[in-house]
Amino acid sequence: MLAKGLVIIPTYNEIENVTAITSAVFELSEPFDVLIVDDNSPDGTADKVLELQEKYPDRLHLLLRKEKQGLGKAYINGFQWALQRDYPFVFEMDADFSHDPKDLVRLYKACKKPGVDVAIGSRYVTGVNVVNWPLKRVLLSYGASFYVKFVTGMRIHDPTAGFICYRRKVIESINLEAIQFVGYAFQIEMKFRAHTRGFKLVEVPIIFKDRELGQSKMSGAIIHEAVWGVLSMKWKSLFNRKRKTYEQNTYQECEHRK
């Protein structure tokens, strides 16, 4: 069956999860291909993927990077890989089962509806749907979402979400080389760029479950990037808008004088 889209899964030391997560995707009612973007994991994640490719030769792909360069760079490389092929939809998903692979089908069905361009697996659109997180982390995440909404003006309840389906045209419209964030703020920047380009973003309620195997990649530096990065991103968008308006008015004035 022809794949409905490509699921990009970044990995770093995910040997405990990679077999189960890829198998779960391939067991879905809708056919999706999987691209593992591995940052040269010392635990042998890439070797395990190569082994699994013998079982899924046409559906499981591996993009091996030389070193750990951040989540954003991993997705950008994955997007570039996808755009070189004919996938109409491109997904982001974690390797640790915090995102339920079954929800890929729900994201796909939401995104393929007429007029929809991005479907976001949202933890907060119907309350707080997070399992096994300490209260401090829930408050931090929920507070970050409110902060991003306030600063950017996006009406998205979960702007930091990392479980997403993009139509191909959305990724094609974004200059991936110009993306400035590599950590937590990458997810915000991608949504913001889609939003400022007039694409329609919708949220699909999901239940987010904290990882059971492996270690979280969250760090203080990632949160710091998100807090200050959002302000920088919004400021630059306002400056660019004013510059475009000035250039347009100047052009119109010159045309009027002719």
UniProtKB/TrEMBL annotation:
InterPro entries: DPM1-like (IPR039528), Glyco_trans_2-like (IPR001173), Nucleotide-diphossugar_trans (IPR029044)
Domain Glycosyltransferase 2-like: 7-173
Coiled coil listed as a keyword: no
Pfam families linked: Glycos_transf_2
GO BP: glycolipid biosynthetic process
UniProt keyword annotations, A-Z: Glycosyltransferase, Transferase
MF terms in GO: dolichyl-phosphate beta-D-mannosyltransferase activity
GO cellular component, one term: membrane
Superkingdom of origin: Bacteria
PANTHER family assigned: DOLICHOL-PHOSPHATE MANNOSYLTRANSFERASE SUBUNIT 1
Membership in a protein family: Belongs to the glycosyltransferase 2 family.
Protein name: Polyprenol monophosphomannose synthase
Organism annotation: Robertkochia marina
Upper classification of the organism: Bacteria, Pseudomonadati, Bacteroidota, Flavobacteriia, Flavobacteriales
